Amino acid sequence: LIGEGVTYTKTESFGITGNLSLVKDGPGLFVWGGGTLDAAIPITVSNGIFKLGVTTANVFGQSGKITVNGTGQFDLNYSVSGGSSPVRKKTFYIEGNGPDGSGAIVNNADSSLYGYHLGHVVMTGDATIGGCGFVEIRGSGNGIDCGGYELTVKNAGRLLVEAGTYLTNATDIVVDGGRLQVCNSCTLGADRIVLQNGGTFMNFMSS
Fold first, then answer.
1. Strands 43-52 and 65-75
2. Distance of alpha carbon 9 from alpha carbon 87, whole angstroms
3. Of 50, 139, 153, 158, which alpha carbon lies 20 to 30 A from 109's?
4. CA angle, 181 as apex, 83 and 93 as ends, to 5°?
5. Angle in degrees, CA 157, 61, 27, rounded to 5
6. Helices (H), strands (E): how many in the chain?
7. Local confidence band at 101 (pLDDT 50, 70, 90 cut-offs)
8. CA distance 47 to 29
9. Could you report the per-residue pLDDT of 104-143, keeping only the tens digit for each?
10. Could you give the CA distance from residue 204 to residue 202 in angstroms, rounded to a whole number?
11. Are 87 and 52 in contact (CB under 8 A)?
């Protein structure tokens, strides 16, 4: 999928299966607005924005991987209160800050709604998670492995690390104008937590 600064929305109901991969390149916006994608098909976003336009929980299957690198960005665009994102069972491999610096992963939907957005995230380089909405890590044993890199939480949204999950192996965690919230019984591991430009760290851990 190569978009030279244009927007394309897939609204058709047909699914995609087969021995292939799905790659988003070019500076445009691609919106997945209909149909299913076989869980075995990997997604790579290396430039531009791949945006979810559906909220059905299982349209992308119950496994598989999504890689975001270069100047690519994955927009969860999820605003179902208490719901389960279509990509919650995917493993994300991320590095970079997206095309505009706002994040490799963002949620630019309603800022006030909780939900099961992400499960496993592995950083392969310094990376930013941002947007105006919640990005919530949920599910026992899930979490973010920073891989010895720096994680930045940016913009007006909130990265919420729920109970039973982890945010570990970070050098610095930089909260740049956003919020990082860690909940009781999650595992947190970083050399430093740096707050700047109004960033907030909310610690609900008992120890």
1. parallel
2. 18
3. 139
4. 70
5. 50
6. 0, 18
7. very high
8. 9
9. 999 998 767 777 889 999 999 999 999 998 899 998 899 9
10. 6
11. yes
